[in-house]
Structures are given as C-alpha cells and as structure tokens.
C-alpha cells in the first residue's frame, strides 16, 4: 500500500472551514451540501430536539464500511478528520481513489448526536450516554444508528471517538495520542475471528502511525459491556474498530491529532479495499501498549504546603475543564489532586523547588480550586492554554 501520494498532500485535502474543538451541525451544513454533488447525502433520522441526523454514502464497491462520529457531542476531532477524508474521496481526478471506490462502499454518519454537539456535552438532550444505550435503544439517536446498521449491512464498523488528556500509552511518559480497540464480544473477552479481523486493521494503522508518533499509540480497555455500541456490533460478528483521538503536545485544539486520525482512516480503508485481512496479527496487536491513566495537564512539583499544622512537600495535579462560552471552548485550569505524584506525568511541568507558591490573593491551595496562574520564586507563570 503506497501512502506517499496522499500524505504529502494532506494540506490540499484539509477542510479549513471547520477548526478547533467546537463543531455543531451548523458548521457542517455547507459541507454536506457541497458533498451532495459527489455523494448520496440523506437525512436518516432526527435527534431528541429535532435536529437532522445525516448520512453520506460513498463508493459502490462490494465491501461495506460504516463509520459514525460525535456519538458523544464533545468529541469532534474525528468529525473534522471525516471531512478531510471526504475531500480526498471526492477527488474524481485521482485514479487511485476511483479504483478504491469501486472496491468499497463507505457509509458515514458525521454527527450522531447533534444536540450534544451543540451543547458540547458527552450526553444527548435527555442526558443519556448513547454509548450505553446499544441494547435498550431508548433514545432516537440510538435507534437511528441501529436502523442504519441493519439497512447498510456493514462488513466493518468504525466507532469514532475522542479521549481525555489523562491517558498514557503504557506505563511511561508518552501520551496516548491515538488509541484503538478491537472490542470484546463476550464476557470472556474471547479472541474470536471477528475480533482478529478488527485487530489486523489496527495493526496496520499502528504501523503507519509509529513513523510519525513513535510510542504514542495505545490500546483501550477491552472490558466487555454489551450496552456499548462497539461491543454490541462486535457480538453480532461485524468486525468493529474503536478510534480514540487523544492528546499531542500543546494540541488542545486537536488539529495535529485530526491529521493523525485522517491518516488512520485512510490507511484502514485502503487496506480493506486492496489487501486480504487474514486475521492472524493478534500478537502484533497485543504488543501495542495498553492505555494507562498517568497524565495530568499540568503538574507543579515539590510544593511546600502546610497541612494540619505540618509542613509537607507535595505535588499539585491540574486538569483543564472544558467549557463552552460564547461558541468557543475555554480551558479552565483546576487543581484536582494534591499528593505525591512521582508516578505520574504532566503534559507541562513546573518545579517549586520545595518552596511555597501563590495562586492569587485570598485563594487557598486545595483540591477543586480554579487556578489561572502560579507565582514561583516571584515569577508569574500562566497556566492557561495557548490556542494555536
């Protein structure tokens, strides 16, 4: 499989009209209209609050791949990557793309949870996690996905998500920038033929990603939960791959990771279009490190604190809380852990050198406190995200 012609041209296919973390249905309406000139774009249902759920059918090949994004409304990175991918697939001057689309058919739900996407929440408008509703199908969005699955009859499913900044790729100082999973399909987490096929796809994507983010690919936890969509579809013997867009250094808008997800999607569909999937790469899949929860956004190390009348040297673990304000996502730093964090890592780290720190007048250092800056040795350090 030759990636060169595409990877060198990514900026040509990059969809510049959508950017950053906040993507709702308004942002993609024009794109859907434009792509309807090339593909079959249709409305397949509506959300709790009556927003359209769109479906894009691409290609006319025998092998069928179903993809859906923004099941969780605040996980928008893969939605951006999908529209980058659609720009490639609409290039009717590319003979390679034409050949690919004669071999595969792709069904895409770019935004399964438009209500959650507008509110920038994980849940839908009824405060239900759609990824825990695969069996009961209590929500209209869940029923839309199941109906689409039943009618499209996919050979493979791609379940597209985003994950928090807390994850490392293994027990080491490497963020899980991209994570994958071939979900379990039974309580015993048996390695079935179906799971092996999904594993083969992940191994191929990992191989290409290691060239650009070595050591920063992880495997998500495969604890079985039949209420999850991926586990349900896997249990129905359709190979299903979970994609998780994670953190890259200083990439809080997830634009670098967007490109990596695009690369992964392209790698996988080309593999499925042109290569046999023997299902024999379990050992290579198992060698990919497991996700661990070892990161904070910021760690301030070696802070002198007075606790219950005693002086202690401890670390401050800070995470960003994402808030939607005036149609923008702001990242609010908050102290969430005061402890010895020597076994954890910070995406950014400061050293107090066993001295006291200041976080603002009348503010006590305690868990739960919002903190915009710290003063270390009379020097002020902003803790806010610098959006690029």
Structure, explained:
The chain is of the alpha/beta class. The protein has two domains: 4-293, Aminopeptidase, CATH 3.40.630.10; 295-382, Roll (Urease, subunit C, domain 1), CATH 2.30.40. Helices cover 28% and strands 29% of the residues. The protein has an eight-stranded mixed beta sheet with strand order 1-2-4-3-5-9-7-8, with helices on both faces. Strands 13-12-11-14 form a four-stranded mixed beta sheet, with no helix packed on it. Strands 6-10 form a two-stranded antiparallel ribbon. 45% of the residues are buried. The mean pLDDT is 95.
Instruction: Outline the low-pLDDT stretches.
Output: none
Q: List the strand order in the largest sheet.
A: 1-2-4-3-5-9-7-8
* Rg, nearest Å: 22 Å
Number of strands: 16
Assign an overall shape: globular
Order of helices and strands: HHHEEEHHEHHEEEHEHEHHEEEEEEE
Query: Could you say how many structural domains there are in total?
Result: 2
* CATH superfamily label of the largest domain: Zn peptidases
Q: What is the SS-derived class?
A: alpha/beta
Multimer state: single chain
Organism: Gelidibacter sediminis
Active site: 386
Keywords: Carboxypeptidase, Hydrolase, Metalloprotease, Protease, Zinc
Cofactor: Zn(2+)
Strand and helix map with partners:
Blueprint: H1 4-7, H2 10-13, H3 25-35, E1 40-46, E2 52-59, E3 63-68, H4 77-89, H5 95-101, E4 104-109, H6 114-119, H7 140-152, E5 156-162, E6 167-169, E7 178-181, H8 193-209, E8 217-219, H9 229-235, E9 240-245, H10 255-274, H11 282-286, E10 291-293, E11 295-307, E12 310-325, E13 328-339, E14 345-355, E15 373-376, E16 379-382
Parallel strand pairs: 3-4, 3-5, 5-9, 7-8, 11-14
Antiparallel strand pairs: 1-2, 2-4, 6-10, 7-9, 11-12, 12-13, 15-16
